[in-house]
Amino acid sequence: MTSADLARMMTGIGQAARAAAAELACATAERKYAALIGAAGSVWDARESILVANEKDVAYGTEKGLSAAMIDRLRLDEARIRGIVDGLRTVAEQRDPVGEVISEWDRPSGLHIQRVRTPLGVVGVIYESRPNVTADAGALCLKAGNAVILRGGSESFHSSAALHACLVKGVQQAGLPATAIQLVPTRDREMVAQMLRAVDYIDVIVPRGGKGLVGLVQAEARVPVFAHLEGVCHIYADGDADLEKARRVVVNAKARRPGICGAAECLLIDRAFWAKHGSVLIKDLQAAGVEVRGADELAELPGVVAATADDFGHEFLDMIIAARLVDGVDGAIAHIRAHGSNHTECVLTENDAVAARFFQRLDSAILMRNASTQFADGGEFGMGGEIGIATGKLHARGPVGAEQLTSFKYLVTGDGTCRS
Questions:
Q1: Do the Cβ atoms of 232 and 266 come closer than 8 Å?
Q2: What residues contact residue 172 under an 8 Å CB cut-off, 6+ apart?
Q3: Of the residues 26, 81, 115, 190, which has the maximum number of CB atoms within 10 A of its CB?
Q4: Element (H, E) at 36
Q5: pLDDT tens-place string over residues 308-348
Q6: pLDDT for 384
Q7: What kind of fold does domain 233-375 have according to CATH?
Q8: Cβ 362 vs Cβ 387: under 8 Å
Q9: Domain coordinates in residue numbering, the chain
């Protein structure tokens, strides 16, 4: 297709989304609930055809040379489809944020003022590999009364299309416009640029993918963007950490699913912990199949690869982790400030003062204590799913769920009230 063809496609999609958004803003909670429950049923009924579509995508991704971790992000099985279905149902059951009175007050002038949640309008979501984002993003945008334009990665093209068809079926059965959830029907990368320039149709762009995609979106978008940098997540083992807790959490944070943005990418070990327990955490990671890239003393350990400067602040998304020793919690904080991406950090400690200092002096979107960074997920936060993890400081931070996909307006009531 030519650039002119793609521009016309964007215009058609955008106009349809604008019209749908006007209807969705007024849709009842009951109708949105029905759409999401219907979509969940459709996904489960269509699971065999979804898996067939996913096999095509896995074959395509393998041919392109995607890493094992990226193939894992791409692959669906019946359990993961069940997870998608459960996510849709969880979002359906959530309180509808639209119309919620956030606050209200009276003024001496006689005015009564309410601040009320309202949809953003049209959300554009640009994502890579993970086909479940199609369902998560579609559901959360619908719940918040927004129309959504989805542009999935070329690797998940068939899986996303199969899931999108189920979402549309649920929307139509509930009497809502089919164009409430649209999927860009081409792999052509020019459509990303078209979306980034579509200021007349899209109110906000949410990128979900690797550093290259997010950097491109932030550099070229004329539409406002929910910032989402890479997940360079750190885990710090304090001198007062419980050894068994630390061993469980560190391995889970890295090895459970190394290709997700909540996977730990750097292990910081307090020298006091090292003096007590030695290299036990390093050995545990190696036993789990993780390549450890260690600095300084850690580089001398058996099987450890000597780290380079570039290994710190790097999102591996693979069975690789950088590691170094630090001097206390302040050493960990200094390292994270220098190399972090403001996504998720964890402190392993039984010392309340250390945990409080870690929480107070770091400003990442998510800070954890004695818990795996792999919990950095909207579903695990009780949001049913997420459209992404926002690492910026404006509007939304952390998991972006339905509530974060709203803005607000003021409703002001008087009684013939005039300003003197």
A1: yes
A2: 178
A3: 81
A4: helix 29-45
A5: 999 999 999 999 999 999 999 999 999 999 999 999 999 99
A6: 67
A7: Aldehyde Dehydrogenase; Chain A, domain 2 (3.40.309)
A8: no
A9: 3-226+400-413, 233-375
